Every structure is written in C-alpha cells, then in structure tokens.
Amino acid sequence: MTATPTPPPADIDPRLLEVLVCPVTRTTLDYNRARGELVSRAAKLAYPIRDGVPIMLPEEARSLEDGE
C-alpha cells in the first residue's frame, strides 16, 4: 500500500485574505498555511484552498474539532 502524497502548503495573496470573510458569519478568516485552509473560528469551519483558490462553500468546508 502506497501513501498518498501530501500536497505542498497552499499560498494565498495577503490582499485576498484581507477582503475574504466567512460566508456563514461574515467574520474574518485565519490562514492555516500548513493545512491549506482558511479558518472561521466563529462558524467552526475550515475552508480548503485548492490550486491557490479558496473554496468558500460551507458544504465544502471541514468542521473544526474542539480545541482547533
């Protein structure tokens, strides 16, 4: 069984991060470079970044675990 390669951390334009907000709560997002996600603490969701594009759909977001 071969391991699935981990994609490299996604980079995002800092100016884009300044204007993006959570589509659920309209609050600011934190950038988690290691996971390649934009995190909404208020909604407890992490939005993926695929090929440098933030996927800002709640149904595509990962629910945050307690303590994340």
UniProtKB/TrEMBL annotation:
SUPFAM superfamilies: Trm112p-like (SSF158997). GO terms for cellular component: cytosol. InterPro entries: Trm112-like. Gene3D superfamilies: 2.20.25.10. Belongs to the UPF0434 family. HAMAP family: UPF0434 (MF_01187). PANTHER family: PROTEIN PREY, MITOCHONDRIAL, ZGC:162634. This is UPF0434 protein AQ619_16495.
